Amino acid sequence: MPETAPSEAVLDVTGWTCPAPLRDHPRVVMGHGGGGALSAELVQHLFAPAFGGEALAQLGDSAAVSLGGVRLAFSTDSYVVRPLFFPGGSIGDLAVNGTVNDLAMSGARAAYLSCGFILEEGVEMSVVARVAEAMGAAARTAGVEIATGDTKVVEAGHGDGIYVNTAGIGLIPQGVDLRPQRVVPGDVVIVSGEIGLHGVAIMSVREGLEFGVDIESDCAALGGLVQSMLAVTPDLHVLRDPTRGGLAASLNEIAAASGTGVVLHEGRVPVPEAVANACAILGLDPLYVANEGKLVAFVPREHADAVLDALRAHPLGRHAAVIGEVVADHPGMVVARTGLGGTRVVDLPVGEQLPRIC
């Protein structure tokens, strides 16, 4: 067989990492912001090599950093949800609660937030005021202070009314070490409540859909809930709030980072009937639908019952449930045991079922 001529050589791109490894997508697509495989590829192969640094390499909901001998959690997030106001909350509530929750997933008590507004020319001042007031109220409820901020205005047609960016810092208590690398076979997987409410609430308003019952977002600050868990034991292994990409994305990220397998018992996952019905109509899987007031915890088996009791004693955790366990088999993979006795792979979503949910 003749050798391939130089002009006919096939380029081997399997090892590309920088500067442009997004081989199948030479341009940004909506899925790159969806919290699934495309988002992970963008961060791991483009941003992380460009920025470097040990803190960024953690790739958690927030970074745990040390400053002057004090352990801090530091996080930032941007909010581009449409519509700005929805059943159960608004972009203002999301901006505060989302960043507070990211800090809480490191076990930190949120202390201060920054706030950046990007306003589109022509948006009504009354709308801006409603968002700002919602942010202030959410901050007071969460026990956090908005300490600094910034405002920019873009020309009409170059935005979508209001975008908000928040960053936050908080203190991590001594003895708390939450990261996926601590997950081991035998750990119990607990979810703090009913899933899928936020994503379905957004879709119902955006598309004018009626499901026969009002569905409200679960948007809430989880700092108090996390502190109630840590009061039982600081020896929690990892926490995540399953926002973009839903519960499935969070479980896959933890399984991949820890090198373990996760077995999910599908029938134990608390899915509200209204969400299940809406997902059936829309052709969605509740496991992939976004949440804004739930967490998933990987807990040593010996502490699981006490942590579950603490969750259920808190108003935000009364529907908490054990939904699975960590195994040594199929490392990096999440599988679900179905109600019919079968098993299916719960893969990382490519993009996002419902765009612009936060």
UniProtKB/TrEMBL annotation:
<comment type="similarity">
    <text>Belongs to the HypE family.</text>
</comment>
<dbReference type="InterPro" id="IPR010918">
    <property type="entry name" value="PurM-like_C_dom"/>
</dbReference>
<dbReference type="GO" id="GO:0051604">
    <property type="term" value="P:protein maturation"/>
</dbReference>
<dbReference type="Pfam" id="PF00586">
    <property type="entry name" value="AIRS"/>
</dbReference>
<dbReference type="InterPro" id="IPR036676">
    <property type="entry name" value="PurM-like_C_sf"/>
</dbReference>
<dbReference type="Pfam" id="PF02769">
    <property type="entry name" value="AIRS_C"/>
</dbReference>
<dbReference type="InterPro" id="IPR036921">
    <property type="entry name" value="PurM-like_N_sf"/>
</dbReference>
<dbReference type="InterPro" id="IPR011854">
    <property type="entry name" value="HypE"/>
</dbReference>
<protein>
    <submittedName>
        <fullName>Hydrogenase expression/formation protein HypE</fullName>
    </submittedName>
</protein>
<dbReference type="InterPro" id="IPR016188">
    <property type="entry name" value="PurM-like_N"/>
</dbReference>
